[in-house]
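LOG
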Amino acid sequence: MKFDRIDSPQELLKYMDMNIKYGFVGKNGRKYFNQFSEEWNDWYEQCIVQTGEEMLKSGIGTCWDQVELERLWFEKNNYEIKTIFIWFEVNYENNYPTHTFLLFKKNNKWYWFEHAFESYKGIHQFDNIQEAIDYVITKQLEYAVKNNIAKLEDKKLIVAYEYTKLEKPIGVDEYFKHVTSGINLKKE
C-alpha cells in the first residue's frame, strides 16, 4: 500500500504498522531502534524530530515524529485535527515520559489516533476534545506509575499543549520550545 493511496484512518494505521518502527534518527545519521540499549542513552543529544515527509523516507520515529506523519495524511485528506503534546511540567531534570498524539473529528465525535503508544494502538472515540485529552493523560500517568517513574499524585504536574506542524527537522530542545509555545490546555 502506498501512502498517497490510503483513504481512511484505519488504512493509515495499517500502513504505519507495516512501514513505521519505533525509534529515532540521530544527527549522526544512525537509526536507533532499541530503547533498552546502551546506545539509546544518546537520545537527548542525537535525536532529530522529523517532519511527516521525512518520516515517510526514514520509516522510524518516536511518537513526536509519528504524529507529524499522521498530520501529513489527515491534513491532505481535509480532516479537522488537533495535535497534542503532554508532559509532566517541572523545572528540573527528570525521567518523566512525554507523549504526543493526534485527535481528529468525524461525525461530531473526536477520535484519538494512536500508533506509537503500543498498549493503546488504535482509533478511540470520544464525545469531545477534553474527554479525549483527559483519557490520554490518565493512560500516560498509569504508564509512568507502572514503570516507577511517577506517583499517582503527579497527575497534577501533567500539562497538555496543542501545537502546530514542524516546518523542518529539529533537535530535542528546539522541539520542546516549539510544542510548549502552543496553546496550554491545562484546566484550572
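LOG (cont.) second protein
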Amino acid sequence: MKVKDIVNNEELDLTRDDLIEKMKEGRQVDLILKEKKSDDVGYLTWDMEQWSTVDGKRYIRTYQFEGRVLSEYTSHNIHDLGAYFFPDEAASVQLS
C-alpha cells in the first residue's frame, strides 16, 4: 500500500508487516479512516488512529476526531494487531 512518510517527505510502498516493523523502529503509523468509527456503546467516536509501540511488544492506539486529539487510548499486544490494526482499510496511511 502507498504510505506517505511525512518525516522524510517521500512516498513508500509498504505492507502491513512493514508498518509493524517501522513501529518497532520507533516510528508512528497514522491511519486516516474513510469514515468515522464508534465503539460498541457510542462513547468514543474517531476518524483517525495513531499507532505506536512502547517496547516492540506493547502497542498503543490513540485517537483523533475532526482534528482534535482525544484523551482515550487502547493498548494491545502483537496478537491483538490482527484484530485491530487495518492499514489496508484506511483512506490514507502516514508514517511519522
